[in-house]
Specification:
By secondary structure, the chain is an alpha/beta fold. The chain is built from 12 helices and 9 strands. The chain has one domain: Rossmann fold, CATH 3.40.50.720.
Length: 328
């Protein structure tokens, strides 16, 4: 593991998780964020090139998690997204190269896949691997995909070792869709998602640490980081029409655990994130899959990791909106 690591977005969920974990791995971690926090040493904007340059001195690797997220799409302008997600990433990449930084890990998102995540009526659920061509549907996805391409450019032009981790959902906040919030308890919805589109932050962190270890030997790569699904490609048609039947085959105990809590399974699942490449190339072994969290619930434990509980909910806005957590 490299020595001094710059963590952007250190006041956010993942940034804080990394700042909590890196010292335990023997690393010196420097937190950078717009917001002050107990885990932030450098307060400023990654869109400010001079500030970024000053933060690169003595840095061995960058973990770039800072971003404007999907919940900011309505509250921030497209130019804000470009300034943070595109210009900010370019600043970090170019100043990392100028400073001789040896590794760059970019936290991207499965949201870059956009429109390909929603199959047509009657079609099978989408099987999402790194080979699927993204079709972003909003400024968030477009700017994250552009930032990914900048990472690839800097690797090819300057030999900067760089890995891109496309993370699925790991936030603890309520779902952005009102119909889901109305139909399911929040924990019910989140546990359902471990089947196909969610990961625990402890596993997200372990993927980033492994990426730091493997980035120099790999050089460049994109990886889906999501809990290991129990589903197979052959399940996709039935998943989209009768998901509980498929889940019953993969996790026979789920119905009893759910019944005890008054929970229900989603009737339809529209996509499955496949993490096989990350497991093969990074040696990643995520712990928190659907069956694992199901067993924790059955044993009377919280399904979240201790790290997730320690960080808690941060929210994405400083105000409360009338119709839900996000003004979508």
């Amino acid at each position: 593991m490299v020595g001094t690591i710059l963590v952007t977005g250190s006041a956010g969920h993942l940034g804080e998780a990394l700042m909590r974990t890196l010292p335990q791995e023997g690393c010196r971690a420097i937190g950078l964020d717009l917001k002050e926090s107990p885990f932030t040493q450098r307060v400023g904007s990654i869109a400010d090139r001079d500030f970024v340059r000053s933060c690169m001195r003595g840095v061995d690797a960058v973990l770039h998690t800072a971003t404007l997220h999907k919940p900011h799409v309505v509250t921030h302008s497209r130019q804000d997204f470009i300034a943070t997600n595109v210009t900010g990433t370019l600043n970090l990449l170019e100043e990392a190269i100028a400073a001789g930084v040896g590794a760059f890990i970019f936290t991207s998102t499965t949201s870059v896949f956009g429109r390909v995540l929603t199959p047509a009526p009657g079609a099978p659920a989408s099987w999402i691997t790194e080979d699927v061509v993204p079709l972003p549907k909003n400024i968030y996805g477009i700017t994250k995909l552009t930032a990914e391409d900048l990472c690839e450019l800097m690797h090819r032009a300057h030999k900067l070792p760089c890995l891109i981790l496309r993370t699925s959902r790991f936030f603890p906040e309520a779902d952005d869709r009102k119909d889901t919030r109305d139909a399911y308890e929040d924990d019910n919805a989140k546990v359902n998602e471990f089947l196909y589109r969610r990961a625990d932050i402890e596993d997200i962190v372990s993927a980033h640490l492994l990426a730091l270890q493997r980035v120099r030997s790999i050089g460049f790569g994109r990886y889906i980081i999501s809990a290991t699904t129990p589903f197979a490609f052959e399940d996709l048609q039935e998943l989209h029409t009768h998901a509980p039947e498929v889940v019953r085959r993969c996790a026979p105990t789920y119905e009893a655990v759910y019944a005890a809590r008054g929970w229900t399974m989603f009737p339809s699942i529209d996509r499955v994130y496949v993490n096989a490449r990350a497991r093969a190339d990074l040696g990643w072994r995520p712990r928190y899959d659907f069956n694992y969290v199901l067993n924790r619930i059955a044993d009377g434990q919280d399904f979240r990791s201790p790290l997730a509980l320690a960080i808690g909910s941060k929210g994405y806005h400083d105000v409360v909106f009338e119709d839900g957590p996000y003004p979508t």
